[in-house]
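Dear colleague,

Following up on yesterday's call, I've attached the two folding results inline so they're easy to grep. Please treat them as preliminary; we haven't cross-checked anything against experimental data yet. The first protein's sequence and C-alpha cells come first.
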Amino acid sequence: MDWLEALQRLRSTDQPGVLATVTGVRGHAPREAGAKMLVGASESWDSIGGGNLEATVIDRARAMLDGGATTPESLTFTLNERAVTQHGKQCCGGVVEVLLEPFLPRPTVAVFGVGHVGHELARILSRLPVHLYLVDSRADQVSPDRLADVLGGVADVHPVHSPVPDSVLGTLPAGAHVLIMTHDHAEDFLLCDAALHRSDLGSVGLIGSSAKWSRFRARLQTEGHPGETIERISCPIGLPDIAGKAPAVIAISVAARLLQLLPTAAPSGATAGRR
C-alpha cells in the first residue's frame, strides 16, 4: 500500500496521521525532493530514505500525533558521519529537508433542526471536511430533494429522520459539536437535557434569545443539572458582533463561531481522492 492509499484508509476510518515530504535536497541523499511517507500511530507507508533520517522522522511524527499537533514542522538532516544521530549514521554527504504535516480525523458536527436556519447552516458546513449529521423529527426536512444543495459538498453528510432526536444525540461520537435549532422549544429542551448527560461533547449551542436561555437554564436546574454543567451550553449562538435575524446571516455567524472551535490541520494530500 502506498502513502496515498494509506492516507485514504486512515481518513475513511477517522484515524490521524502525519505526511512527511522531502522538500529540499543539497548534495547526495537517499531520496529526491518530493518523496513522501505517511506515518500513523502504529504503521508507516512508503519511504523518504531509510536509516536515521526516516527513523527520526517517524519518532517525531508519532510525538506530534501523541500531542495532537495541528501545525506543520520542518526538519533538516545533515547526512555525514559527524552528525549527531539516534538511529545510526548516514554518510551520503548531503542535506535533506523534510516537512511534517499532521492531519486529524474529520470532526463531527450535528445540526438538530433543519428548518430555515438549519438548512442555510447545512449548506455552509457541507463545504467543510466534516462529518455532518442533519437531524429532524420531520421527515420532509431531511428528504434528498430538499437537501440537494447540501449533498454535493466535501462533507460526509448524514441526513437522519427521527421522531426522538435526543436518542440520536446519544449515539454521536465523542468530541461531536452539537447545534440545537429545532422548530419546537420542547424538542430543544429535551436535546439540551440529553446533551448535558454527556461530558464528552466538543461543544453545545442552542439557538434563541437570552430570555429563552434564562427559562431553559432554570428548567435544567430543576432537572438536577449543576450550574457549571449547564454552562457548557452556549446560548445565544454565533458571533455576537454579527447582527441580523435573516436565516443566512444567523447561519454565517454560527458557522464562523464553529470554525473557531474546529481543528484546522489538513495537509494538501488530505483531499486526494475526494469527489
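Below is the second protein, in the same order (sequence, then structure):
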Amino acid sequence: MLFAEARGAGFPVSQSTAYNTLNQFTEAGLLRRIGPDGVRWFFDTDTTPHPHYYLQGEHILLNIPEADLLFANAPEAPPGHEVSRVDLIIHLRRKPS
C-alpha cells in the first residue's frame, strides 16, 4: 500500500526502497512486522501486544479488540530465556454459502 500510495502521489520510489524503509522502521520499534501465512507480511503501526484475525483468501489482517480475548496460563520460558513477545493470529475463512 505504501509503495502504491507513494507512486500515485508522484514520488519515484522503488519497491525495494519502500520495503527497506519499512524494515528500518520495524528495527527502530516504530512498526511491527506480522507474517500470518509465511508468504505475506503486514506492517502494523500498533506495536503494543495485541491479537489479529487473518482472513484467508482475502489477505486481510484485522485487530481483535482486547476485551474479546483472555490469555491465561501462559507457559514459562525455558531456563535462560525470556518471552520477548507473543503473537496470536486466528485464521478465518468464509463459510461456503
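For the second protein, one point worth flagging: The mean pLDDT is 88.

Best wishes,
A.L.
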